[in-house]
From TrEMBL:
Biological process, per Gene Ontology: iron-sulfur cluster assembly
Keyword Cell membrane in annotation: no
Entry keywords, A to Z: ATP-binding, Hydrolase, Iron, Iron-sulfur, Metal-binding, Nucleotide-binding
Family per record: Belongs to the Mrp/NBP35 ATP-binding proteins family.
InterPro entries for the chain: Mrp-like_CS (IPR000808), Mrp/NBP35_ATP-bd (IPR019591), P-loop_NTPase (IPR027417), YlxH/NBP35 (IPR033756)
Residues that, per the record, bind ATP: G49, K50, G51, G52, V53, G54, K55, S56
Protein name as catalogued: Iron-sulfur cluster carrier protein
Record note on quaternary structure: Homodimer.
Classification of source organism: Bacteria, Pseudomonadati, Thermodesulfobacteriota, Desulfobacteria, Desulfobacterales
Cross-referenced PROSITE patterns: MRP
Role according to the record: Binds and transfers iron-sulfur (Fe-S) clusters to target apoproteins. Can hydrolyze ATP.
Gene3D superfamilies for the chain: P-loop containing nucleotide triphosphate hydrolases
Keyword Cytoplasm appears in the UniProt entry: no
Length: 289
């Protein structure tokens, strides 16, 4: 059953059912999750070592690109602390619930279905400050509650970092394969190495690294400016024996499209972001199909 609110989820996690009850609940939850994910061919887990590097932008544009190519695609925002997919996809109302209490994703166009954990928050600007078990419970409950139907791809916008929350998602969807997003500068790369080690520890296959916010080309004078340096993503991929999926430039079209609620690969197909992103999508799909 779907929680109506954050408070309900918290209360549920705070309760103390007997061990038998707990085991039964856990088994029921695992069956729900299995059922919810059973008709999805490929699951892609988009993660980053730190926040703000463009993980949600990559997730939204990857899902939109796959849907545009004709694949039935789902996009799931599980980033509890900063769910931004709904805004990026222009979703106004978030919650549709079926008669059997399943969460129904919003359909955008013919091939894209989107669901956000934000749907379970009463106030979209509400900060989530609960402790581990409540978060884990919420994440599992959310994933198991979605009715996806048949999908070719599910793109998962994971919580940033390498703590309890991404671990909960990986444990819930162990067959997902990772795409790691970073920016080129050393502070981000230090965190990306933690993400790589995280994937190895949890034995999650990694499809490769995407370098976001690479060089910016001034639209007025065409000068190329390396705002966050460049090349760090490909260097790290090489060192770690991972595939480099591509470098995406810094492009103000992304900011505009994010605010307007249309992914830039749809809104501005000739933007420097969209042109570079094609290579990233090809490098991902050719490993899976
Ligand atoms: N290539 C890019 N060029 C310009 N701006 C970008 C680019 N990629 C992302 N941004 C902008 O950077 C900001 C952060 O991006 P985004 O929300 O995708 O990051 P995130 O890693 O998901 O962050 P968080 O973990 O905090 O949710 C957004 O305002 C987004 O529009």
């Amino acid at each position: 059953m779907l929680y109506d609110s954050v408070d309900q989820a918290k209360n549920k996690s705070a309760g103390c059912p007997s061990q038998n009850q707990q085991a039964r609940q856990q088994q029921q939850q695992e069956e729900m999750i299995k059922k919810s994910l059973s008709r999805i061919k490929h699951k892609i887990f988009v993660l980053s070592g730190k926040g703000g590097v463009g993980k949600s932008s990559v997730s939204a544009n990857l899902a939109a690109s796959l849907a545009e190519k004709g694949y039935m695609t789902g996009l799931m925002d599980v980033d509890l602390h900063g769910p931004s997919i709904a805004q990026m996809m222009g979703m106004k109302d978030l919650l549709d619930v079926s008669s059997d209490q399943k969460l129904l994703p919003k359909k955008i166009g013919d091939n894209l279905k989107v669901v956000s954990i934000q749907a379970l928050m009463q106030d979209k600007d509400q900060a989530i400050i609960w402790r581990g078990p409540a978060k884990t419970g919420m994440i599992k409950q959310f994933i198991g509650s979605v009715e996806w139907g048949d999908l070719d791809f599910l793109v998962i916008d994971a919580p940033p970092g390498t703590g309890d929350e991404p671990i909960s998602v990986v444990q819930t969807i162990p067959e997902a394969k990772a795409v790691i997003v970073t920016t080129p500068q050393e502070v981000a790369l230090a965190d990306v190495r933690k993400s790589i080690s995280f994937c190895k520890t949890v034995k999650m296959e990694t499809l490769g690294i995407v370098e976001n916010m690479g060089a910016f080309k001034c639209p007025h004078c065409n000068e190329v400016i390396e705002l966050f340096k460049s090349g760090g993503g490909s260097m790290t991929a090489k060192k770690e024996g991972l595939k480099f999926l591509g470098s995406i430039p810094f492009d103000t079209a992304v900011v505009k499209s994010g605010d307007e609620g249309v992914p830039v690969v749809i809104q501005d197909k000739n933007s420097t972001f969209s042109l570079a992103f094609k290579e990233v999508v090809d490098n991902i799909t050719k490993q899976l199909i």
